[in-house]
Write a structure and sequence with these properties.
Shape: globular
Helix content: 25-40%
Distance between the termini: 28 Å
Strand content: 15-25%
Number of helices: 8
Structural class: alpha+beta
Oligomer: single chain
Radius of gyration: 20 Å
Number of strands: 11
């Protein structure tokens, strides 16, 4: 979806200033702004879910809702001007979410291949390529005996977008035998590339969440949890470009 934005509207000074940073202010008062651009603008300004501008950016929310995000469903319900969602639209959104997830894994696979070629890692195994229900996406060989486990969480949106961790992933995360378990957070993902931030080891995090889930009443089990990236320590961002070396952002 594309939106024609009138950049000369003076009612909201913060919005007008932000539009200027997006190249949408000045003598040229009309320009096409993509949905990704709208998402970035809404996130930068912290606009509420019921702001009219937020209502034009629903594809990512639909994708989140399609894979079970209650928060995304609630945000969609609060969005101004958001259309009703048909079963067909939800199906397409689920397919788009799966495609974004696949894209993230492909970008990480290319990144890890470059890491191996440069000697920064010994080897890597794309676990999820052989087994789609595996509780990790990659296993990295750091030495003859040392390994790390990786789960890739991808979004076309900003880094701050919450992601989901399944119960099977939490159980694998909490098991110390396989080495450190890290989230590779791929965000702003598209066909031209993405950004990547790598978490600290999450073994202790996984154990803490499992302990918390054990306090649920008998017969109640959480299949997954939604995680705010702000609650996890991540390293500095790296740019992922298909077929090229990553660069510091």
């Amino acid at each position: 979806m594309m939106l024609l934005v009138a950049a000369a509207a003076p009612e909201d000074r913060a919005l007008h200033a932000a539009l200027g940073r997006f190249g949408l202010a000045g003598r040229e008062t009309m320009r096409v702004l993509s949905e990704t651009g709208i998402v970035r603008l809404v996130a930068e300004l912290g606009l509420p879910d019921d702001h009219p501008l937020a209502g034009f950016a629903i594809s990512e929310e639909l994708q989140e809702a399609a894979i079970g995000s209650v928060a995304a469903v609630e945000r969609l319900r609060r969005r101004a001007h958001a259309p009703n969602v048909s079963p067909e639209a939800l199906r397409r959104a689920r397919e788009q979410a799966e495609a974004i997830g696949r894209l993230g894994e492909e970008l990480v696979a290319a990144h890890l291949q470059r890491e191996q070629d440069s000697g920064r890692i010994l080897s890597f195994d794309w676990v999820a390529e052989a087994n789609a229900v595996a509780p990790m996406d990659f296993r990295i060989g750091l030495s003859e005996t040392g390994t790390e486990r990786i789960d890739v969480k991808t979004t076309a949106g900003p880094f701050e977008r919450p992601f989901h961790i399944s119960l099977s992933e939490l159980r694998e995360m909490a098991a110390p035998a396989g080495g450190p378990y890290r989230i590779y957070r791929v965000y702003e993902a598209g066909q031209t590339g993405a950004r990547l931030r790598i978490s600290d080891d999450l073994c202790e995090f996984g154990r803490a969440v499992i302990v918390a889930l054990a306090a649920l009443p008998p017969g109640i089990m959480a299949d997954a949890v939604s995680v705010d990236p702000a609650g996890i320590s991540f390293g500095e961002p790296t740019v992922l470009i298909p077929g090229d070396d990553g660069e510091d952002a």
